[in-house]
Specification:
Blueprint lengths: L9 H14 L3 H16 L1 H11 L12 H13 L1
Length: about 80
């Protein structure tokens, strides 16, 4: 592991101390877990997985307006 220094606000430091006490885990471990979680959530792989899950989400809905008709109307209005 590589030692890294970070700056926390007093509120962050206090909350981290409470979490450490409640969980019995060292603050450094909690920080590493938070960094790992952030990296996972912001990685391209995670974004791709979320987009894949969302693909076709509204495909079988029958309660939505006709978006193609709405778009055609907007296009007609822009041309005038």
């Amino acid at each position: 592991m590589i030692r890294t220094q970070i700056y926390l606000t007093k509120q962050e430091r206090d909350a981290l101390g409470v979490l450490s006490t409640e969980t019995g885990r060292p603050q450094s471990e909690l920080i590493r877990d938070a960094v790992d979680h952030f990296i996972a959530l912001t990685s391209k792989t995670h974004r791709d997985a979320v987009l894949e899950q969302a693909a076709g989400l509204w495909r079988d809905r029958d309660d939505l307006p006709d978006f193609a008709a709405i778009r055609r109307e907007w296009d007609r209005e822009r041309q005038t």
